[in-house]
């Protein structure tokens, strides 16, 4: 099968969505398909008119049996323009753009309307978690039978031994953007300064410089305990996991949450929120989840896991056990390939 995988911007950028796309390019090729990486303008999800025209022209000209288009671009392309594309279109939705934290009401409404309209043209839709599928059915009128769930796979290298350092180390991984809730995490950490801990927040500060600057300023008074590393390579993140006591993230919404699964595979107890798909990734046996935007509850959960060795050990065992049942990248790529084949057959 000839597949054109259309992805906006720099595919090497440090985000979970781009990591997923990179891996799927490789895995679909490993399955024997002829996969072309179609590079789209980096202005999405707020493209200029000329970038939209360039994108539609590229989709129309693609020499492929089927087009897989990342939702960062697909979701804001006009339905009338998408209908000009002859090859069947499959949208890859990591999470609905309208649910991004920090949007104005007007922007959220605009993104939501654009995405609903664009999805009416898609022959099939791929999502990365069952909760995202539910959201597309309930809020975006996508027929459930048109949706394929292909969760991120787990690389076996994340299943590693762990030797926590002293004082106990808290690790968080997520870009310095509003959706990741680092402001809430920092508030929570400020409430547990009476017990020993050290912390590290790993994540790029390039996506939203204004938000990143605010987080960095908020973290400054804790500089003797807390380090903001910027984006790190996966090998370096694994090294941090190997010496940590727990993983935390105060995320406001996740379409899946690859970092949670990878931390669990390393045996890290999870302290996080119930944002988006997180409860579908982190079972009660593996972590303590609290409501979004509740720093008091998050601080209490952090304190409990840091000071109760029995609880921490039980959650660590539960995390490793849950990660053993994770899908592989090969399984998820096969699911996408079946979806794409179905789209070709339905065209």
UniProtKB/TrEMBL annotation:
Gene3D superfamilies: Glycogen Phosphorylase B (3.40.50.2000)
Any Pfam family: Glyco_transf_4
Keyword Transferase annotated: yes
Molecular function in Gene Ontology: glycosyltransferase activity
Domain Glycosyltransferase subfamily 4-like N-terminal: start-end pairs: 44-156
BP GO annotations: lipopolysaccharide biosynthetic process
PANTHER family: GLYCOSYLTRANSFERASE WBBK-RELATED
UniProt-recorded name of the protein: Glycosyl transferase family 1
Organism of provenance: Acuticoccus sediminis
Lineage, uppermost ranks: Bacteria, Pseudomonadati, Pseudomonadota, Alphaproteobacteria, Hyphomicrobiales
């Amino acid at each position: 099968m000839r597949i054109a995988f259309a992805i906006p911007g720099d595919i090497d950028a440090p985000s979970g969505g781009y990591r997923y796309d990179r891996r799927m390019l490789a895995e679909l090729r490993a399955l024997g398909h002829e996969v072309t990486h179609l590079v789209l303008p980096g202005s999405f999800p707020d493209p200029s008119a000329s970038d939209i025209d360039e994108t539609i022209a590229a989709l129309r000209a693609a020499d492929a049996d089927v087009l897989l288009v990342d939702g960062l671009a697909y979701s804001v392309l006009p339905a009338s323009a998408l209908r000009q594309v002859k090859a069947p279109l499959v949208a890859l939705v990591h999470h609905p753009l309208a649910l991004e934290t920090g949007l104005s009401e007007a922007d959220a409404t605009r993104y939501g309307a654009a995405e609903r309209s664009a999805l009416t043209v898609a022959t099939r839709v791929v999502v990365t978690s069952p909760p995202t599928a539910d959201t597309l059915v309930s809020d975006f009128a996508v027929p459930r039978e048109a949706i394929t769930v292909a969760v991120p796979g787990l690389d076996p290298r994340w299943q590693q031994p762990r030797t926590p350092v002293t004082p106990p180390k808290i690790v968080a991984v997520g870009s310095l953007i509003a959706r990741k809730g680092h402001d809430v995490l920092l508030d929570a950490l400020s409430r547990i300064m009476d017990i020993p801990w050290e912390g590290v927040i790993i994540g790029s500060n390039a996506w939203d410089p204004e938000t990143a600057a605010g987080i960095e300023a908020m973290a400054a008074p804790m500089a003797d305990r807390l380090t903001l590393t910027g984006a790190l390579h996966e090998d370096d993140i694994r090294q941090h996991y190997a010496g940590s006591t727990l993983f935390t993230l105060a995320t406001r919404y996740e379409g899946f949450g690859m970092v949670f699964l990878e931390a669990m595979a390393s045996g890290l107890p999870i302290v996080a929120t119930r944002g988006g798909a997180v409860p579908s990734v982190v079972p009660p046996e593996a972590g303590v989840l609290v409501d979004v935007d509740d720093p008091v509850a998050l601080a209490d959960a952090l304190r409990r896991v840091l000071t109760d060795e029995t609880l921490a050990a039980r959650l660590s065992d539960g995390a490793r056990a849950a990660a053993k049942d994770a899908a592989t990248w090969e399984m998820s790529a096969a699911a996408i390939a079946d979806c794409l084949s179905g789209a070709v057959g339905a065209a």
